[in-house]
Write a structure and sequence with these properties.
Layout: H1 21-28, H2 43-63, H3 66-75, H4 85-96, E1 99-103, H5 109-117, E2 120-124, H6 141-148, H7 155-176, H8 181-204, E3 207-210, E4 213-216, H9 219-222, H10 225-233, E5 238-241, H11 244-247, E6 260-264, H12 267-282, H13 298-305
Parallel strand pairs: 1-2, 3-6, 5-6
Antiparallel strand pairs: 3-4
Helix pairs in contact: 2-10, 5-7, 7-8, 7-12, 8-13
Bound molecules: fe (ii) ion (FE2).
Amino acid sequence: MPLTLPGGGLLTSGLTTGQAPFIEEARSRGELYIEQPWELYSDDNHESWKRLYGRIRPRWERYANEHFLRGLDALELPRDRVPRLAEVNRTLRPLTGFEARAVSGYVPAFLFFDCLRRREFPTTITIRPHDKLDYLPEPDIFHDIAGHVPMHTDRAFAEALVRFGDCAHTAVDMTAAVKDEAEQCRRLTSIIKALSRFFWFAVEFGLMRGRNGVCAYGSGLLSSYGELEHAVASDRPQRYPMQIEWAINQAFEIDRYQPLLFIVDSFDHLFDLVDRLEKWMRAGKLNDVAPGEPGVSETDLRSFLRADPSS
Ligand SMILES: [Fe+2]
């Protein structure tokens, strides 16, 4: 029997990426922060989680960094069904103060970083179809909960994420007084590009020195069965010690295995790098980074222009 949704619509499918009426209705009402209606997940949705988890688990044990594996143990994510965010948060909150917060879709850049500053992680609740397990351009709950959230159990990593949030506030502080509107937008666009690039290389696709040379802590790697092994074990990717000046000027493409990866020594090292990034921003070093991907959307730019720096 179909369920009636809060907005009055009928449930015809579960919470599959791109096919979820619940999400469409939330977006049409302008609701970014939502609840996770766990009862709406279909059997196919749970099957997707089970297959994704089951096939990548042995690769985590070989290629993931030890902090991730400890986080995985602490969270006790279910193997055979989509997790409930409330259960995840019950374990996560006492460890680092972080929590996963359900969202209906893309979170504009300033809001995303500001959430990190408040120790909230915007979390997608839909899941990829079980016939498309290998690649999806947008995040899903497997990427967000299995790829990101185990890292949030680690104190040093959590502090680095909060420092990313500070960077977004510094960006607003540093550009709010620029009188010329075109110049203000130009500088902000450059800073958002630099932050996005650094986040990409340091959080989504980061490698760390560790067991057998290097291991993965980046969430884009830890949620990808194919790319995790490619990033750590293949001789194809170029791997270099993280350098801020390189990362912030380096374009990337999202729809291919990454040809270039950066390595950090530890999460204290990662924190120091983000801290230095914030100081570089204050010194104006992010005001004119190299052009190229990623593009900065009107929505992302506006999120910074309208931000309340005192929040
Ligand atoms: Fe991600």
